[in-house]
Amino acid sequence: MNIREQIGQSPIEELDRAMRTSSRIFLRPSANVEMRSLPASHLRLLQVIGRLPDSKMVDVAKALDVQLPAVSQMVDKMFKAGHVVRIQDPLDRRISRLRLTPEMEELLSDAASARLARVAKAAEALTDDELETLTMLLDRLSSSMAPRTTPAFAGPTPVAREGYDADPSLEIASSRRGARVRRRTL
Q: Which residues contact 162 (CB under 8 A, 6 or more apart)?
């Protein structure tokens, strides 16, 4: 007798239970209090900015598949919290490029390492074939549940490495009001 026969669940209810359980295990919040206090949408924003450093806000909005005003509000909050810096584009001063602060880069890296360690530990219970099958099935479920209505995001608009990167006298300074690029004091 399987679990469905024991508690009278349909295959869909079983799948729902398994997905909720695995989400609680694998997507468990980081041990870092600051990371746990952030909404999931803000964490996704930070992850995208981390993957696409020096992106324009429109690039981040496309990657997240959300409207530009929503991204603008989230970026404002993350800037004020000192998690993101805005760097003026050296070629077009009207454009701000987005980058994580070094502290947030480290927090996200630590959280990703912890998540991958949990996944690796769980994967030890599966054979290589089972792991491949599970990955294929999860990919198929994901693509069927969230079809993209916009074309795939190709990445940020390239930027010449000038300004902050080219000038070693500049540093990222964060405070309660947000993070800014400023001249290093020697």
A: 90, 91
